[in-house]
Write a structure and sequence with these properties.
about 180 residues
Length: about 180
């Protein structure tokens, strides 16, 4: 599977995102009760923030997943661990579908990680999924993440995990 990326447009993409983030499958995204305006506002805040960015992953020009990345020195993990130079935080969301494609989500996380490691300044990716999100833990491990410890975030108990460029390359045998 081949994916391309484009910056998310908070207004143009709000309806699509709203469908994705309010679906029961996206419960860990914690936007189940969000109104369209809430989604617009949340992504306008991300777009205006120099320390985070949201991208849409496209397949044949059609949006098929959401990717967010952030600087953990300023967002999400401030005070919860000691960031190293080259750390970048990441979230991704594959929307619910009536016709699942075997291996799709693994292809998505692999593409997301490859995109992050295209930047030579990125040395390590950090994630903080909900401790009960076992499906994403398995995906994270498949691309090289190593869990470090559980941390209490304001909105959830999270599993802090890290993946270096070398761990990713070893786990996926993808050249970046």
């Amino acid at each position: 599977m081949t994916f391309t990326f484009r910056p998310l447009d908070p207004l143009r993409d709000a309806e699509l995102l709203h469908r994705w983030v309010t679906h029961p499958k996206a419960a860990f995204w914690m936007m189940q009760d969000a109104k369209l305006e809430d989604v617009e506002r949340a992504y306008m805040e991300i777009a205006a923030d120099e320390h985070q960015q949201a991208l849409l992953g496209l397949q044949d020009g059609v949006p098929v997943f959401l990717m967010e990345y952030y600087d953990p020195r300023y967002r999400e993990l401030v005070g919860l661990y000691e960031p190293l130079p080259g750390d970048v935080g990441m979230h991704f969301l594959t929307p619910a579908t009536e016709t699942p494609v075997h291996g799709f989500t693994r292809a998505v996380i692999t593409a997301v990680m490859a995109r992050l490691f295209e930047d030579p300044a990125v040395a390590r990716v950090v994630v903080e999924p909900d401790v009960s999100n076992t499906a994403v833990h398995a995906l994270n491990e498949a691309v090289g993440f190593v869990p470090e410890r559980e941390i209490q975030k304001p909105e959830k108990m999270a599993l802090l995990s890290f993946c270096t460029r070398e761990q990713f390359l070893h786990a996926t045998a993808v050249s970046v």
